Amino acid sequence: MQSVSSMTSMDHFWLIIFCAIVAFIPRFFPLLFFTKRAIPEWFNEWMRFVPVSLFTALVVKSVFIDSKYQIMTTGNLGMIISAILVGIVAYRTRSMTLSVVIGLVSVMVFVLVFHI
Amino acid sequence: MKKNEPNWLMVLRTVMPLGLSYIPIGLACGVLLHAAGFNHLLTALISVMVFSGGAQFLIASMLTINAPMTTIILMMFFLELRYALLGSSLSRYLKGQSLPFIFTFAFSMNDENYAVNYLKFATDKHWKPKQALLVEHYSLLFWTISNIIGSLIGSALTIDLKVVDFALTALFIYMAIMQTKSRLIILVSALSGVLTIFFLVLMKSTLGLVVATLIASLTGYFIERYLMEHKPESHLLYKVHDPTRQSAMEESDE
């Protein structure tokens, strides 16, 4: 993964502004509306499944799919083992920091030392 | 808790574990944003304006694969949609606050300071919206400074990005595990994984992520509705054991 971005700083600036708007809308409007009225049931129930689906999709993409959108068959064993390890740590400790730090150390050992 | 402790110090003590945990993650995020071509000022700006670990990591990694701006913004929309849920669950504690307050509060709310505030509101009846806002601003300060330092480190040292990029994966695994409260959610997660591979390979675009997320979450929603109506005793609706029992507190409040 090397830096090959073709965007300029000005593009990045606008990207930040748009992302900030997109990030702000779901933070603000539900908070504003639901200080006054009740949350629709179906929305709440659907929302319970959105984050976990998205997080899994992102994890699967980074562990199993390469930059040409093909299934990785070599070079990702270290990541697979590290991902399982992070899952166990997250489940047992519920600590975000421990999960991230142990994941980083594990991937460092597997990728940089064992080259798998 | 000491009675005459000043408010700012008491709130700072509440936010300290979160603030410290932001340091390694913020550093990694700053390094990646730098690699994605952001200068220090833009990194500071995005940390304040977007203020979400997952989102910033995602922007950085999508920029390095040259994803088009519209795809990044669409992915951001789905990633940030979950805040609708967080916001609506906090709203009952913010009744009667002014519009500018709600605006400011929403602007700096994210997963982690939400968790701190939700727990405080649920367990401490003296916890005030103003203190909750201060929690957000302290965490914002820790996050932004860590990001800027990460960006500076990234410009000074050569770092293996494949390794730092795994911080994002680890963060998402953690967030997925924290969401896994029933067996049905495990099924939805597995379905999402399979659909992700299928649609990414098929569509050759990050939009595959969006399609997989929508299908998996809607499937989960309809399976749950069906089971609630026809098979309320189904094993799929069983709760997943939480070894630290943190979630027991949130559940009892609902």
Describe this structure in words.
The complex is a heterodimer of chains A (116) and B (254). With 116 residues, chain A is mainly alpha-helical. Chain A is built from five helices and no strands. Chain A has helices at residues 9-34, 41-47, 50-64, 77-93, 96-113. In chain A, helix 4 packs antiparallel against helix 5 (96-113). Chain A has two domains: 1-48; 49-116, no CATH class. Chain B has helices at 7-35, 40-49, 53-64, 69-80, 83-90, 99-107, 111-123, 129-156, 161-179, 183-203, 207-230, 247-253. Chain B is globular. At the A-B interface, helix 1, helix 2, helix 3, helix 4 and helix 5 of A face helix 1, helix 2, helix 3, helix 4 and helix 5 of B.
Describe the structure concisely for a colleague.
The complex is a heterodimer of chains A (116) and B (254). Chain A is an all-alpha fold. In chain A, 72% of the residues lie in helices and 0% in strands.
Distance between the termini of chain A: 16 Å
Taken from the alpha-carbon principal axes, the silhouette of chain A is: extended
**Regions with little confidence, pLDDT below 50 for 5+ residues of chain B:** 248-254
Class computed from helices, strands and strand pairing of chain A: mainly alpha
Q: What fraction of residues of chain B sit in β-strands? A: under 5%
Counting helices, strands and paired strands, the structural category of chain B is: mainly alpha
- Radius of gyration of chain B, in Å, reads 20 Å
Note the quaternary state here.
heterodimer
Approximately how much helix is present in the residues of chain A? Answer: over 70%
Series of secondary-structure elements of chain A, N-terminal to C-terminal: HHHHH
Number of helices of chain B: 12
What percent of residues of chain B adopt helix (DSSP H or I)? Answer: over 70%
E-strand count of chain A: 0
| Low confidence ranges of chain A | none
Mean pLDDT value of chain A: 86
Rg of chain A, rounded, reads 19 Å
Biggest interchain interface, per-side counts: A-B, 84 and 108 residues
- Largest pleated sheet of chain A: none
Domain module count of chain A: 2
In whole angstroms, how far apart are the ends of chain B?
27 Å
What is the domain tally of chain B?
2
